[in-house]
Design a protein that fits this description.
By secondary structure, the protein is of the alpha/beta class. The protein is built from 40 helices and 29 strands. The strands form six sheets. The protein has a seven-stranded parallel beta sheet with strand order 3-4-2-5-6-1-7, sandwiched between helices.
């Protein structure tokens, strides 16, 4: 049959498939189908990149189905009794969706489709081995398992097509590196086969394509099956994203009081609910499970209040979905959203991939998405109709958060997606797959194993000496036998047990059940790292949108026992989730915007004009633009150098030094570890650090100032950076934790938890240093957290003058802007200088209501830092000014009401007490009453201590905040 292209792409398919297409209502192909079906029908390998909802699954599978039908109906060909095609997805939930989606085609074309993953029953597995399906939908881990079964290996001999869905998700993980070797092991069984990768978007299609097909460096005689085509449909041109920092309204002040949150968060809740109400179905993406739970809790509380309000008949239905919830809860929520019973779903990356939840009209991203790929992947979930633009709104919190979202939105429009972070040469994956090949073939020459592994793209540069080191480590751990005379690898007594215990390259980390003692039921799970680092009796956290207090952590049962908190509004969650890392190009664009804004302001432009210019260049309104540049305006007004993409500014105060560097998480983390190690070495004291994409904060000993950090940056040899970092890592918990996990994959310890229990981290490190296990742990930490080459470039550019290095004598508005992102937290018992500075800057950026109690005509909301030392009324000149928290409008109203009741009298007395404090003590009283849980009564107690030392004053404020968090008195 002659091959066609373009709008006739379906003409490449046989009669049966075209008739099935007509029955399904497919009259014309979508754009990816137009482009990809012709080469796929021709049997070529391809990487298909297209937005979600454009028919990628059918693009890949229609030619596969057609080939299976054609092979079955062609006379004279050897019948294929085994599996003809594998469809591999990274999630079991995607397997379930793919089965639902492909089952109709299988029934219509008389092609058997089946699913195989960890939950598949033994009966189904036996059935598949005895009577293999034509198409098997599976996961990377299940492929590892079936490659070793004698019957399944026979069935796999007929594989002619392998489709890998969401290939970008696997390309950046060790699971993906493992899969590439698994495909080479499959090739040893089935011979060359067609490979098709599917994804919404990737930053480096060429590299991901090679990841998909392998490099074939060890079989140069057959290069043809290592070639591939990239079929790409631009995602950026199909998305319409706006960035919005909602303006605070009067309604938000009321809502803040109802939900026990600040007005900014109240405006976010109101805005998101408005978007949900304007659409039939909305996904609300957040960056951490903790944020999902916190936001879900706010929605749930508001819905409960509205249900009791007779004037509101149908409150918006919004639920939470993330990976720590039980499977039953997740499926229930997915089904309710798909059926239309829910209007919105607050979700994490659990919904980024193509899990079928029906039609999505709009996507909200709460906070910056941190990466271009993540924004495109998430917003791409909306608009599941042919050629429909995907619409999304990024709701931000001003400052860095908004500028970051603007940079990402612009870069998304231009398809500037981050490169895939492929794990090149991960040695624990090599170890795992060496054992896998031995499991496949009982005994095999080491040279053949080496060739199989290095035909996979991530391992193409693995040297023979390094391979031999890994083999000897496995032999020493008795996971296989090495016959040194014949260089043959054979099974040992530990081979089988190790391999089936390590089918996955996901770290062997326990999951703790969260168990509600009041209802005697499980409510979800927590990761072991989370429990080890944060959990303890009395700690509080949010799950399923509800607040819980830990009563017991049971290590033996791997269970966290909790009780619900009766008044969640009175508690502050003590756990904060880890954010997604921001790449260097995004952070540098934020720095560039800062520089442009600062230059315009210095040249005489007004903040309003600058905000208007931003609104012309980026997808925001002027109000959002004004909030985004607020800290830059303050910084320029205060004077001093502005940190930008080509200027690093180092500032200090008390025992805190901050390095303002707009280089993103990985470079800043690398700089932080280098500076902490070298400054600590010079002073003989430990140096604490805290990192975000735009600044690094250090807690330093007395006598260390910004000049010390400048000297280190100007004199450290960039070529020695890696060596310095490895030395610094030896004292880091992250290396010890990673080392224990890698050791388990090498069989050096039976399990990660047993290893942690038997050896301390230091003893394990000492025992394994100099082995491939240690080298892999270092490589993984470097890969996951650091950016050595880029940081060496930064050091070189600082030393050559390409990047300016400046200092500031005091903390600056931009240097402290990252500390007031609205995170609620419990402060430590012994507040040090760094914590004091954190609280000081948070309060400075909080808003207060100033109200004149003399004339009752003036009320003004402003940030604490903008309050004069002695506030006075601009209408009547009185200094009798009450300072109230933003949600305290009821107190202002009570003061001005003509008729009094007991509640109003109480609020009036409160306001007059506040005004008396401000009249007597000025701005210090405003600061004290702006803190969490410090009303006029407690503020008076703090101020009456007559602290001359400002740090002691803030220590008293912190103690009161901690007391509030424990006693729940404030939100009442």
């Amino acid at each position: 049959m002659a091959k066609s292209s373009g709008m006739d792409a379906f003409a490449n398919l046989g009669t049966e498939v075209r008739e099935a297409l007509s029955e399904q209502g497919f009259s014309t192909p979508t754009e990816p189908q137009q482009k990809a079906i012709p080469p796929l029908s021709d049997g070529r390998n391809a990487l298909v990149l297209a937005p979600t909802g454009t028919g990628k699954t059918e693009t890949a599978m229609l030619p596969v189905f057609d080939a299976i039908v054609d092979a079955r109906d062609s006379p004279g060909d050897r019948p294929r009794d085994g599996i003809s095609a594998l469809y591999i997805t990274p999630l079991r939930a995607l397997n379930r969706d793919m089965m639902d989606r492909l089952e109709w085609w299988g029934d219509r074309l008389d092609i058997e489709v089946a699913v195989r993953h960890g939950d598949t029953t033994q009966y189904e597995r036996s059935k598949q081995a005895d009577d293999p399906p034509d198409v098997l939908i599976t996961t990377p881990e299940s492929l590892q398992a079936i490659l070793t079964g004698s019957k399944m290996r026979v069935a796999l001999e007929d594989v002619a097509h392998v489709v890998i869905d969401e290939v970008h998700e696997l390309a950046s993980a060790k699971r993906g590196a493992q899969l590439t070797v698994g495909l080479e092991r499959l090739r040893r069984v089935a011979g060359p086969f067609q490979r098709v990768g599917l994804s919404a978007t990737v930053g480096t299609p060429g590299e991901v394509g090679r990841f998909l097909v392998g490099c074939g460096r060890r079989d140069p005689d057959r290069p043809g099956d290592r070639e591939f085509e990239t079929v790409e449909v631009a995602a950026g041109s199909r998305t319409d994203v706006r960035v919005l920092d909602p303006k605070i309204t009067d309604r938000d002040a009321t809502l803040a009081g109802e939900l026990a949150i600040d007005e900014t968060t109240a405006s976010h809740v109101r805005t998101i609910r408005g978007i949900v109400a304007d659409n039939d179905s909305t996904l609300i993406f957040v960056n951490t499970r903790q944020t999902a739970e916190a936001l879900g809790s706010r929605f749930k509380t508001l819905a409960e209040r509205e249900e009791s309000d007779e004037n509101i008949a149908d409150p918006t239905g919004i639920e939470v979905h993330h990976g720590s919830l039980s499977k039953d809860v997740r499926i229930d929520v997915e089904d309710r959203f798909k059926s239309g019973d829910l209007d919105g779903l607050v979700c994490t990356s659990s919904m980024e991939l193509g899990i079928d939840v029906g039609r999505v009209d709009h996507v909200v991203q709460y906070g910056s998405p941190r990466e271009v790929a993540r924004l495109l992947q998430r917003v791409g979930r909306a608009g599941h109709r042919r050629d429909l633009v995907s619409e999304g709104t990024v709701v931000t919190q001003g400052g860095d958060d908004t500028l970051e979202a603007l940079a990402i939105a612009r870069r998304a429009d231009e398809e500037l997606v981050e490169p895939a972070a492929i794990h090149h040469g991960s040695l624990d994956t090599v170890a795992n797959q060496i054992v896998g090949v031995v499991m496949d073939e009982d005994d095999i020459h080491a040279r053949e194993v080496y060739e199989t592994v290095t035909n996979a793209y991530p391992f193409r540069e693995l040297s023979e000496p390094r391979f031999q080191e890994v083999v000897r480590e496995l032999d020493g751990n008795r996971l296989l036998w090495l016959d040194e005379e014949s260089d043959t690898l054979e099974k040992s007594g530990g081979t089988w047990q190790y391999f089936y215990a390590n089918l996955s390259m996901i770290p062997d980390e326990s999951t703790y059940e969260v168990y509600d003692m009041s209802s005697r039921r499980g409510i979800g799970t927590l990761d072991e790292r989370f429990v080890v680092n944060f959990a303890g009796p009395g700690e509080t956290f949010i799950q399923r949108g509800e607040m819980w207090r830990i009563t017991k952590v049971d290590e033996e049962e791997e269970r966290v026992e909790v009780t619900p908190i009766a008044d969640p509004a009175g508690e502050v969650p003590s756990w904060v989730g880890q954010e997604i890392p921001v790449p260097r190009p995004v952070a540098e664009e934020v720095g560039r915007i800062r520089g442009e804004v600062a230059d315009a302001l210095v040249a005489g432009s007004t903040p309003r004009a600058v905000a208007g210019d931003l609104a012309e260049r980026y997808p925001i309104d002027e109000t959002t633009g004004a909030a985004a540049i607020d800290a830059i305006v303050d910084h320029v007004e205060a004077g001093g150098p502005v940190p930008t993409d080509d200027r690093v500014v180092i500032e200090g105060s008390a025992r805190t030094v901050a390095v303002n560097a707009t280089f993103g998480h990985a470079v800043n983390e690398t700089l932080a570890r280098l500076l902490a190690a070298l400054v600590g070495q010079r002073t003989g004291s430990s140096v604490g650090m805290d990192v975000d994409p735009y600044r690094i904060e250090f807690e330093v000993p007395h006598g260390v100032d910004p000049g010390t950090f400048c000297e280190v940056l100007e004199t450290t040899d960039p070529d020695s950076l890696e060596a310095y970092l490895e030395l610094a890592l030896k004292n880091a918990d992250t290396l010890k934790f990673t080392l224990a996990q890698v050791a388990a994959k090498f069989g050096s310890v039976k399990r990660y938890r047993e290893g942690r229990g038997k050896f301390g981290g230091d003893r394990l490190l000492a025992a394994l240093e100099g082995t491939p296990v240690y080298d892999e742990a270092v490589r993984e930490v470097f890969h996951a957290d650091l950016a050595v080459e880029e940081t060496a470039e930064v050091l070189s550019e600082i030393q050559s003058g390409e990047i300016d290095l400046a200092t500031a004598r005091e903390r600056t508005p931009l240097g402290t802007a990252g500390r007031s992102a609205g995170t609620e937290f419990l402060v430590p018992e012994n507040a040090d200088a760094d914590v004091i500075e954190t609280v000081r800057e948070r309060i400075r950026n909080d808003r207060v209501i100033l109200s004149c109690l003399h004339c009752n005509d003036w009320k003004h909301t402003t940030k604490v830092r903008r309050v004069r030392e002695q506030p006075e009324c601009p209408e009547c000149g009185s200094t009798r000014i009450a300072s109230l928290n933003p949600w305290d409008d009821e107190t202002v109203a009570a003061v001005r009401a003509s008729e009094k009741d007991d509640g109003q009298e109480r609020r009036t007395r409160r306001a007059h007490r506040a005004a008396s404090l401000v009249q007597t003590h000025g701005k210090r009283a405003v600061i004290a009453m702006a803190a969490r849980g410090v009303g006029p009564h407690n503020a008076a107690r703090i101020i009456n201590k007559l602290r001359e030392d400002e740090e002691e004053f803030y220590r008293d404020v912190i103690r009161q905040e901690r007391e509030y968090a424990r006693t729940q008195s404030f939100w009442d």
